[in-house]
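Re: the 385-residue chain
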Amino acid sequence: MGQLTGGDPSLLRRINSAVVLHALRSADSPTLTDLTRVTGLSRPTVEGVVEGLIGAGLVVEAPAEEGEARRQGRPARRFRFRAEAGHLLGIEIGPHRIAALLSGLDGRVIGAGTREVSETASSDERLERTRTVVADLLRRAGVPRGSLRAVGVGSPGIVEADGTVRLCTALPGWTGLPLGERLRRSFRCPVLVENDANTAAVAEHWKGSATDSDDIVFVMAGLSPGAGSLIGGRLHRGYGGAAGEIGALHLLGRGVTPERLLSTTDEPLHPLDEQAVADVFAHARNGDERAVAAVDRFIQRLVHDVAALVLALDPELVVVGGWAAGLDGVLEPLRGELARYCLRPPRVALSLLGEAAVATGALRLALDHVEEQLFAVEGTVTARR
């Protein structure tokens, strides 16, 4: 990359800082010569940027590599990005559990915590359980709360840009909850709230089944399926954050409610929970005719819902996650039926991240936010042109 000249000097400083910082994060203790070669910037520019980053606490001089100290003359100075200069949190707030991941500024997980929560817990109880999980995780990792630079949160429901939950049927008291505002009271850093299927899609693209695909649909398979999608590698939220709410199709006459869909009697399935559904699938495997019919109805609705999104977006890959992804007999029928319904059938794969997908995607959202800040350093870094 050639050095930019002309234009706004502050813009050039930010660009040069971003280029050098990217190189530092990607390399293992590079020298100034290494950074000059990788970035294409002049040595004085690189040296100025590095000194500024050291002053900002983002870079530190690294010890000489083994063998260099024994050579004649002074070894070349080496530098490393200080991932420990700040920390990030990724949090999943779900119907049955709260999970959190802690990382440094490089996104590498250094701690995790989880606790179960009742499906009937109130919003206040669920938020208090979230604070407990975070406090315990930070304590065990020895990380002060003030070190947090950003917090990402994945939650069921349609989430507004400011973190308000516009609609959620999965969690009691969640509809209308100013979730972002409530959580910001507990942290002295930005809190980014996103729909859980959207965060899972981001996670699979970052570390899961979709690392080699930029056009994907992630299906959160459950009683009321949801989906998140990336188009050209970017999360597609829709105008109001409701993109991918395929579980609402039955409300528009697409099919019956899950209680009747999965019933093996003339009455709605009760209680309607994951264990009850797993029992229906188990009975189907044992040849129970009514259970087989119920499973067929469940899979057909899932296929129709996913096919609607696939036909609209034409993704390269569909990743299936959520608790229903672990039930025997879901993936192959989905793959086969999509081949029948879709003009160009996508690849279909199971999530590699499993139940960690939502928290992992939330962590990635926090990392994205911090990277935008780091790569827009102005005033704290001086670079010579």
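The mean pLDDT is 86.
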